[in-house]
Design goal:
Elements (H helix, E strand, L loop, with lengths): L14 H11 L5 E4 L3 E2 L2 H16 L4 E6 L9 E4 L5 E5 L8 E8 L1 H12 L5 H10 L4 E5 L4 E2 L3 H13 L3
Parallel strand pairs: 3-7
Antiparallel strand pairs: 1-6, 2-8, 3-6, 4-5
Helix pairs in contact: 1-3, 1-4, 3-4
């Protein structure tokens, strides 16, 4: 992909603060990002990067990468319409169950909304995403078959087995 990677250590009180701090460090414009603990095969990363870019260029405010693979200690379920636009986020599945996968795309409007959410006291990434949708932002989804979110030691073991079986 040829884009430079920048790792910037930080200590923030919540995931929403981490997102806002990270977005403040990158140049203006659309951004593709992850909050670190997302495991997918390389071909899935390439596919979601391309699809996210297409969606952002098409005028959506944000993109959530989602998966029907639900193995998270605290999943955030995504309800969406037939075109894949997010209609709600919550702790209970409505319709076909998909959850957020920890990978996002944000246009400038959503980047600004992240900073505003933190300023207004939003404490978690899920709170920011719920607020974004509630405020009427157009949030698209890109679905991949499987994402492993590393929350527990067993998640790392599962990721290693999965990627090894795939020859990675």
């Amino acid at each position: 992909m040829g884009r430079p990677l920048r790792v910037e250590p930080c200590h923030t009180p919540t995931s929403a603060h981490t997102l806002a701090a990270g977005l403040a460090l990158v140049p203006p414009g659309p951004v593709f990002c992850s909050l670190v603990d997302t495991i997918m095969p390389p071909e899935s990363w390439r596919a979601v990067y391309a699809a996210t870019g297409t969606s952002l260029a098409g005028g959506v405010d944000a993109v959530l990468i989602v998966t029907p693979f639900v193995n998270d200690e605290s999943p955030l379920y995504v309800s969406r319409d037939a075109s894949g636009v997010v209609r709600g986020l919550g702790e209970v599945a409505t319709g076909p169950a998909v959850v957020t996968g920890g990978v996002y795309g944000f246009n400038p409007s959503a980047r600004l909304a992240a900073a505003e959410a933190v300023r207004d006291g939003v404490q978690r990434m899920r709170g920011f995403l719920q607020r974004l949708v509630a405020q009427g932002a157009r949030v698209a989804t890109v679905e991949v078959e499987k994402i492993i979110d590393l929350d527990r030691p067993s998640d790392l073991q599962e990721a290693n087995r999965w990627l090894s079986a795939a020859g990675l």
